[in-house]
Amino acid sequence: MEEDKVVVFDTNGAIRIYDPEKYDQLTKTLGAQKDYIQKMDEFKSIVTQTMGIVQQLGQAIEKEKLRAIGSRNVVESENEARKNALVEAQIHLREKQIELDRYIAEYNSLQKVESEQKAIIQRLSLSSTD
Where does the record place a coiled coil (predicted)? Predict the structure, then answer.
């Protein structure tokens, strides 16, 4: 057997003979591969965590968006309710003004009737005393 060869057992227990330079290169490559796989696993973990955070933030944003839309709807409906209440109050005021005008006309009419009746009573009183 040559001295510049390395004897190793593989994962199946078989004996392998390698050139020392190539064996060193192989072990370095395997080490680099393990480091790469470890870094990729770490990267995958970081990406998974980041995606989880992004999804949580997305859900929180969506929740706030829905709450903002609900608040806007409440404000808009409050404005509509105020406008409707104002219109109803104006209608009620017009109805009461019409009713007041009718009562004033009736009052004036009754005053006229009263003054006519007083005049008739006075004439009758004067004519009966004559």
Answer: 86-113
